[in-house]
Amino acid sequence: MEENKVKCLVWDLDNTLWDGTLLEGDDVELKQNNIHIIKTLDSRGILQSIASKNDYTKAMEKLHDLGLENYFLYPQISWNSKSHSIKRIADSFNIGIDSIAFIDDQPFEREEVKFTHPDVLCIDENNRDCLLDMPEMNPRFITEDSKIRRLMYLSDIERNKQETEFVGPTEEFLASLGMKLTISEAKEDDLQRAEELTVRTHQLNTTGYTYSYDELNFFRCSKEHLLLVASLIDRYGTYGKIGLVLVECSIECWNIKLLLMSCRVMSRGVGGVLITHLRNQAKNAGVRLQSEMISNDRNRMMYMTYKFSNFVEKKKNGDLVIFENDLTNIPGFPEYMKVATEYCSE
Questions:
Q1: Which of 20, 86, 193, 263 is the most exposed place for a label (fewest CB within 10 A)?
Q2: Contact, 18 vs 103, CB < 8 A?
């Protein structure tokens, strides 16, 4: 399955987003068709930001006047190099640098970024009108989560701001969020988002396996598999569908083939909660619980999540590790999170 890898398009400002140079006193105006491009990419779930050598206050005032301020998240407007700004944007979103595209009118700036970050897709401003037709800018599906992705990130920014300002233990802050995690068997209308999660999620992903809509639908209908989706809400709104679990079920053993979650819930303890739920389900079913893990530098947190949940390594075949859990000493769910389950048999 081919991956549409662009998650964020980073714009230059002067003579790219708008005509003219702001600090030279030009009466800058948006380039023709840019509003349409920005809003269309936004509706497809592609995030957008800015890397511009400019005065931050003046540039943000201009974006506000143009009604575009909220379309650009984590804007980097300073005199730093564009490569430095792009790295900060990737870190702020917690996405890979290889999922960034960058558009600029200056060949020097594009070359500087390409030299430092070879995996960034650099686009000449002269090709701006081709943006919407590029395969990298056209996700296979546009899900409900895609349509509100920017709004969910705006909520994340407010959450993170409140967390930074919060004085007290982390658990107290998490309790203040009023989180509710819902774990449910996947339904047919979950499958587009489920495919999207397997394609987009690399860091908090135990194996890196990707599955197509049709493959996921097979698992959904199979009596030998359990396909679960997890969604999260709190007092700031929805995080959307942020987790996916695929379990291969036999009479004697359940094997977790895939466990992943969105990087936006990295600090919320969702991984541990999902594993606790699976441990309880396996114990109630009277089966052993194993899990596959293909560890790398990017998904080490998932490896540690398994280790902290008392999974032990049973065998190894190249990069593939088979863990097993003895299903003893299963903890309760954290007090700061309400957990609900929705199964067809319930």
A1: 20
A2: no
Average pLDDT over residues 85-97: 93
What is the pTM (predicted TM-score) of this model? 0.83
Q: Is 39 left (phi over 0), alpha (psi -120 to 50) or beta?
A: alpha
| pLDDT tens string 266-285 | 788 899 999 999 999 999 99
The three-class DSSP label of residue 346 is coil
Tokens of residue 340, six digits: 């609900």
- How confident is the model over 309-327, as pLDDT tens digits? 999 999 998 889 999 999 9
DSSP 188-255: GGGHHHHHHHHHH--TTBSS-----HHHHHHHHH-TTEEEEEEEEEETTEEEEEEEEEEEEE-SSEEE
DSSP 133-183: GSGGG--S---HHHHTHHHHHHHHHHHHHHHHH--S-HHHHHHHHTEEEEE
Could you give the dihedral angle defined by the CA atoms of residues 198, 204, 208 and 212, in that order, rounded to the nearest 10 degrees?
Answer: -10
| 8 A C-beta contact, residue 44 and residue 143 | no
Q: Quick check: 2 pLDDT over 50?
A: no
> Alpha-carbon dihedral of residues 42, 159, 243, 290, nearest 10 degrees?
150
Please list, in sequence order, all residues whose beta carbon lies within 8 angstroms of the beta carbon of residue 41, skipping any fewer than 6 positions away.
Answer: 9, 48, 131, 132, 137
Q: How far apart are CA 245 and CA 206, in angstroms?
A: 10
The pLDDT value given to residue 72: 98
The pairing of strands 76-78 and 47-53 is parallel
Beta bridge partners of 311: 325
Query: Which residues, at least 6 apart from 222, have a Cβ–Cβ distance to it below 8 Å?
Result: none
